[in-house]
Each structure stands twice: as structure tokens, then as C-alpha cells.
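Dear support,

I submitted the protein below through the web form. The confirmation email said the job was done, but the results page showed an empty box. After a refresh the structure appeared. I'm attaching both so you can tell me whether what I see now is the final result or a partial one.
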Amino acid sequence: MERSTIDLWVGLFMVAGLGALTILALKVSNMGSLGSNETYSLTAEFTNIGGLKPRAAVKSSGVVVGRVSGITFDNDKFVARVTMNVDAKYKFPQDTSASILTAGLLGEQYVGFEGGADDKMLAPGATLKLTQSAVVLEKLISQFMYNKAAEGSGSK
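What the results page shows now:
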């Protein structure tokens, strides 16, 4: 093989490697789904969103049905308002509940939808009424420690 042919193959290999790294970076940052699918917006209010971030997944039955598009704070109600873009091919009943869940023990947080039994579907721009805030691990540990300390002082 000539030197120029080897240089060409090395260059192609480098371009392929950089392309693979770019795709990996987009997947890791949740930007891999840049498609122009038609979506509709839903909102939900939570008292605690934990570490939920914009672009976090919205899942139902483990299937990604949308993404969190924005998070704001309501100064009147003192709650976090989460806006989500849901793919238009997925429809949910009006009594759907939204929960902030964690992937694994210490994984990233996402919004989980659990469909209800209502015949009427959520309209674009609707607000989900049934919500469950994030479970904060630090609060659970401190509550456990407090309960154990109370048991110890009450038994003497």
C-alpha cells in the first residue's frame, strides 16, 4: 500500500470515530431525539421536583412519550410548574396521574404518567390534576434516623 492510501484510510477512520463520539454525546445529553414530531403541551404542578431537569424523559409504562420542556416556579401557590411536550400519537385520559420517578436508586429523574379510566382525553395545554412529587432520599434517611432516635429515647 502506498503512503497516501494509508493516510486516506486513517482519515476515514478518524471521521467515523468523531461521528460516533458526536452521536454518543447527543444520546447522553438527551438531545438524540431532535426529530420534528408533532407534539402537544401538558403541565403539572409539584411541591418538590427533586433533580428533575428540562429535556428529562416523560414515560408511560416504560415508553418515552415526551420530554420536559420547561420548569418554572409559581410565586402564588409556591409550587413548581412542569411543562411537558408529549408526542401527538400518544393520548391520555383526563384522570392521568403524573409522578416524578427515579431511574434506579440514584439515577436520573423523569416524569411518569399512569393512565386513568376516563373516557375523555387530555386536551393540548391541559393541566394534570393528580401529581406525586419526587421522593428525596435525604428526607427519607433523616426521617428514618429521627424515628430511630425517638424509639431509643422512649424505651428508657
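Response: this is the final, complete result; the empty box was a page-load delay. Residues 39-142 form one domain.
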